[in-house]
Amino acid sequence: MEIILGVFIPFWGTILGSSMVFLMKNTLNKGVEKLLLGLASGVMIAASIWSLLIPSFEMANNQGILEWFPAVIGFILGIIFLIIIDFIISKLEKTLDLNNNESDFKNNIMLFIAVTLHNIPEGMAVGVAFASVIAGNAGMTIAAAISLAIGIAIQNFPEGAIVSMPLKSSGISKGKSFLYGFFSGIVEPIAAFITILLTSKISLILPYLLAFAAGSMIYVVADELIPKSQSGEFTKLGIIGLTIGFLIMMVLDITL
Length: 256
Known about the structure:
Helix content is 84%, strand content 0%. It is mainly α. It has one domain. It starts with a helix and ends with a helix. The model has no long low-confidence stretch (mean pLDDT 82).
């Protein structure tokens, strides 16, 4: 029951973030957007270190292999995976441009696609964490897995808001905008449960999968979240958000 509830924790973060659209009047305040982007960046960076890479080192050590080897291989594969995903999205965007010149709605739909695809490795990260608990790996406890789930839920809150609120600004109804945010997050528990079901088959590659998820998260932060938080006005709010998000996730990991 703890594992089932834990898997859905990140999804609730997305739902709560998406529901912010119902409190919105017309457009999303630029300062709030920068703060949310920074918060998501800080949480993802800290989660990658304490919840994914460090447990990867510990699991590799328990398996009697070089501590850093699975982390390096998995991290690189995670980066490559997101590069491929972004390439696919870029091609799709060019295809849409043939029929619909630049528009707020198109850009927001591309953001929805990007967030949805990026949520897959996040869901996998939660699944890997709970799979590690099931497998009895010393590097991961139920408290640590729940800590990761909570951290991703905190990160998912601004993500859900960033998906739903700009759609409302482009003319979509609040209900439909919320549903876009809802569906961008549903892939997480699905990916998590699939990972857990394959626990017996992937126990030896868990260190690689943890690092894979870490690489995916860092790519999202470096390629999307930080550049967006540092463009235009209110860039200092992005830095403040990153600091708060990083510290929150660090304290969660160390405390739990």
